[in-house]
Request: fold
Amino acid sequence: MTPLERALRERIQAEGPITVEAFMEASNAYYYATRDPLGTGGDFTTAPEVSQMFGEMIGAALADCWRRAGAPTDAIYAELGPGRGTLARDALRVMRRAGFSGSVHLVENSPVLREMQERALPDAHWHENINDMPAKPLLLVANEFLDALPVRQHVGGIERRIVVAAGGLAFDRDGDVVETSPARDEAIGAIATCIAAMGGTAIFIDYGHERSSPGDTLQAVRGHRFTPVLVDPGEQDLTSHVDFEAIAHAARNANASATSVVTQGDWLISLGIEARARTLLRANPDRTDDVQTALQRLTGDDQMGQLFKVIAIHSPKWPAPAGFE
Ligand code: SAH
Reply:
């Protein structure tokens, strides 16, 4: 039995069944605090770890938006859940070249990942919570951050809970599931409030759906495979699909503008990733296969291209970032 399962069983025995939301929150807090989950030797691989092109496209989009907003000198680069810091490093290389000299603010609660980020970005500032960030115009990105925040599940209007059963943990009820995520709404609300007051833009990339729809999307991944969600809590990554309609709604509620939702593939192609790939190929003729494979992984319909969606929220006084037309 994993250490977290033992703790959760004790908690359930003492307090009664726990909600799916509490379970997901406890599992992921433990999981991220105790490891670097990324890459081939870990549990899953994210887009910034596939290729530098991903972060470079984001850097180009943020720098372009910042310039069109009049290049405010007090703007900061911010990122939620920056993993190994790879995206930030690739994006900032492009942004610095475009004249952006603002400071770097990372929201991260895993000590293990924070240490990796410190090596990649020695001059950055770290925050435990979104609300601890300075009130400045934001150039923000979050890749695969929202999917790790907890969801609530309801079955027949009743919140779904987890009980101790013979041989492990089990759901207290089955049936048609409806998911909501107050944690995501709160995160988006905080960012949108800052952007509406101070200016800025925020780009969110995650797997999920464009329209709110019912369904159980909670999933667990370990060693690049799907695993049963209630097994070995704290030792596998728990995520659920992001409801992008709910994200847009939370942003507009806080007086920010929200773009339409586009697929990662269409977005990267409209930002010019294919031209970037050709440049990389010319500079590194020996890496042809790597660059082609990475481009295909990031944009291909059967790979990350369709499954992942992108939305931006921005100040009504700022232009929308490119790629959402
Ligand atoms: N963006 C990175 C990592 C994605 S994994 C990439 O694309 O490679 C999710 C990241 O979010 C990790 O850095 C994890 O530690 C962080 N994270 C998860 N829940 C968090 C929370 N509640 N507060 C702050 N960071 C969190």
